[in-house]
Structure formats: structure tokens, C-alpha cells
Specification:
By secondary structure, the protein is mostly helical. It has helices at 18-32, 36-55, 61-81, and strands at residues 3-5, 11-13.
């Protein structure tokens, strides 16, 4: 990801984020088919987004809090309910 400072108050991170979108989309599909690696990768994506929202909280307080709470719900759901279901024989 490239970082370009274009002005005193402008910071652009990356020009093309399609790769991140594809990775998150494929992770979502893999979570739906109960892949354990994808489950933990989804937790890592949600955690990194939560950290990004904490860094942006001064610029966008309400939006950051809304997305932070959504990230916490996603992490909770993946950790608690994302595991394999074991049925007794």
C-alpha cells in the first residue's frame, strides 16, 4: 500500500484497494462454508478495522463508534458461533 501526502491536511492511503476487497470477500465465503482458517482471518480483519476506527475517532466520532461496535459484534460472532458443530453419534 502506498502513502502519498498531497497537502498539509490530506493523506491518501493507497490508490487501489481492490485486493483487500477480494481478500475480505473470499474470506467471507470461506467462513460460510465453516473454514477454520478463514474464521480466524475474519477475526484479524475485524480487529485491524477496529484499530483503524480507533485511530479515526477524532475525525469521525459517531461513524467510528458505529463501525467499532459492528467490528466487536463481528469478532464475537466469529469466535463464539463460528466454530464447527459437533453432533453426538
Amino acid at each position: 500500500m502506498s502513502v502519498a501526502v498531497t497537502g498539509p491536511e490530506t493523506l491518501r492511503l493507497g490508490e487501489d484497494n481492490r485486493g483487500v476487497g477480494w481478500a475480505q470477500g473470499l474470506t467471507g465465503v470461506a467462513v460460510l462454508v465453516k473454514n477454520q482458517f478463514a474464521r480466524w482471518l475474519g477475526v484479524a480483519f475485524a480487529f485491524s478495522n477496529a484499530l483503524a476506527q480507533l485511530l479515526m475517532i477524532q475525525a469521525y466520532p459517531f461513524w467510528s463508534l458505529a463501525l467499532l461496535s459492528l467490528d466487536i459484534l463481528v469478532m464475537y460472532g466469529l469466535v463464539v458461533y463460528g466454530g464447527r458443530t459437533y453432533r453426538p453419534v
